[in-house]
Amino acid sequence: LLTVTAERLDTWIMNVLQPSKDFSDQVKWTMNHICEFLKKDCFPKETNIHVNKTVKGGSTGKGTALRNNSDADVVLFLSCFSSYQEQKQNRMGILDLIKRRLGDHRQSLMFTVNITEPRYKGPGNMPRSVSLTLCSKMNSESTDVDILPAYDALGQVRRDNEPDPSLYEAAYVELLRAKGNPGEFSPCFTELQKKFVKRYPAKLKSLLRLVKHWYKKRVKPRYCSENLPPKYALELLTIYAWEQGTDSNESFKMAEGFRTVLELLCQHQEICIYWEVYYLLQHREIGAHVKSLLRQPRPIILDPADPTGILGQDNRWDLVAQEAACDRSLPCVSTAKPWAVQPAKPVTIEVKQLSGTSLKRTVSPGTTIKELKE
């Protein structure tokens, strides 16, 4: 990344950042076997626990995996969780059982890749998942797999491309009433997170890989002890930059896209991004909650699949901005022209005059009433 030119950027991403087809196939095959094991053999009959469905998420599920060390999620939607609260109360016991059963059967799953001993993963003594690593037997490629038990809040999710927010209103209202921490139950919405990213064109996914690689190699090693933003926040920022900067055009210059993301990171104190895809601001209860999040200190990046998921709060965005400012001089972006993208998503407002006529304007959320009048 320090030496690649703007002209070679697309080829470099394809040759260096995209996982090899062989390892991708091996991971897919092994993940399918792990899912089959979890569905059929993980929970003894006497537990009376059934797996309603498994969903593969993370970078691997979304189609944005990096070649050397990527991540995948397997979310198990279990019959024993009938609410968000039950998931929270009973998760530890389920994780214990999954860890023990995977440890006992690990050898039988290692046909094409090596699999590490399962381990707990999560903040403090409150693990959210059982994690293991799939390692290639041929080279240094690896994938970290997190197995997350979750409440099946959404039921059957439609596979078509046209999202219908009315389908998810009941699940989101129940989520708000559960009063969990921000994003605490986001695994319940893995299917929607995956659908949101997966529907985008291949070239945007290449830009996502580039931004994640930059973050992993240029930012994280320098500030490994700091509380940095989650990479999902940078993925969403990149998607927003592309949508706003190209009007969702599949034909764009990779260097310009990367430069735009670096410029937005330098303006982190103004970032305010959200989508109305799976939930709407017009909904009385959901909209009121989302608007309360949008009033919080910036940067604000809302998870499009989880209305409680405000990403990157209390993180060291200033450190990311420092590196972004410095790396604007990299050969691949130094001469690239950034797209005209505002760090806050423009909003459309309707002004009604006393005479009864109305006027619609698209403005920045930071625009004052005085500026609007002028």
TrEMBL record:
Domain of life: Eukaryota
First-level EC class: transferase
Domain Polymerase nucleotidyl transferase span(s) in chain numbering: 51-101
Subcellular location per the Swiss-Prot or TrEMBL entry: Cytoplasm
Keyword Transport attributed: no
InterPro entries, A to Z: 2-5-oligoAdlate_synth_1_dom2/C, 2-5OAS_C_CS, NT_2-5OAS_ClassI-CCAase, NT_sf, Polymerase_NTP_transf_dom
Protein known as: 2'-5' oligoadenylate synthase
